[in-house]
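User: Is it possible to get a 3D structure for a protein together with its bound compound? The compound here is heme C. I've pasted both below.
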Amino acid sequence: MFMQSLRARTRTSTPHRYSWLLAWSALFLTVSLVGMPSAQAGEKNLQPATMLPSYQKECAGCHLAFPPGMLAPATWSRIMQGLEKHYGTDASLDAVTTTDISTWLQKNGGTYKRVDAHPPGNRITESAWFVREHRKVRAEVWARPSINGPVNCAACHTQAELGNYSERNIRIPKEIDRIVISAKP
Ligand code: HEC
Ligand code: HEC
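Assistant: Yes, that's possible. Here is the predicted structure of the complex:
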C-alpha cells in the first residue's frame, strides 16, 4: 500500500523531489534510532561504574549481585568476615579473593541514600529504607513461589541485574505458578 503510493508519487514527481523524500526518510530513521531509549532519563544505575569481576563471579551465584551502595562499608565488613556462616550456607572464599572483594565493597559501600548503620541481620531487605519502599507489598505477594521473598529482587525489578531499580521497570508477577525470567535489557 505504502510502496504503491510511493511508486505512484515518484512516477509523477521529478527526480529532484524524490531525492527529498529519501532524505527526509533517512533523517526520520536516524532521529528515531538515535532517540531510542537505552537508559531512560532520570533512571539510575545503582551498581558502581566498574563491577569487580570476582564480586560478580562469587557473590552472584546464589542471589544476584546486590548493589554495594545499599549497605554501609561497616556492614559489608561484617558480612565478609562471616562468609563461612552466611545465612545458613558456607560462602567462604580464599584469602586473596576475600580481600579483593572486601576492599572493593569498602570503596563502593554506602552510596545509596539513607543507608542504615547496621540493619538487622546485615540485610538490605531489613533496612529501614527497604521496608519503607516496599511497604505496599503484601505478605501474600512476597510468598508467591514466583517471587519467593524479598531477596529475589529480579522477580519484580526486571532490570535488577543491570542495577536499575526504577519504578518503571517493576513488574510484579501475578500468577503464583509462573516462572519469571528476568527481562532482557
Ligand atoms: C552458597 C550460596 C551463596 C553465596 C556464594 C553467597 N551468598 Fe549471600 N546469601 C545466600 C543466602 C542463602 C542468603 C539468604 C537468602 C534469604 O534470606 O532468602 C544470602 C543473603 C545475602 C545478603 C543479605 C540479603 C538481604 O536479605 O538483604 C547479602 C548482603 C549477601 N548475601 C551478600 C553476599 C556476598 C557479598 C557474597 C560474596 C562474598 C555472597 N553473598 C555469596 C547465599 C549465598
Ligand atoms: C514483590 C516484588 C519486589 C521485590 C522482590 C523487590 N522489590 Fe523493590 N520495589 C518493589 C515495589 C512495588 C517498589 C515500590 C515502587 C513505588 O511505589 O515507587 C519497590 C521499590 C524499590 C526501590 C525504590 C525505587 C525507586 O526508584 O524509588 C528500590 C531501590 C528497590 N525496590 C530495591 C529492591 C532490592 C534491592 C530488592 C532485592 C533485595 C527488591 N527491591 C525486591 C517491588 C519489589
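The pocket of heme C (ligand 2) is lined by residues 70, 124-125, 133-134, 137, 141, 147, 150-153, 155-157, 165-167, 170, 172 (CB under 6 Å). Confidence is low (pLDDT under 50) at residues 1-14, 27-38.
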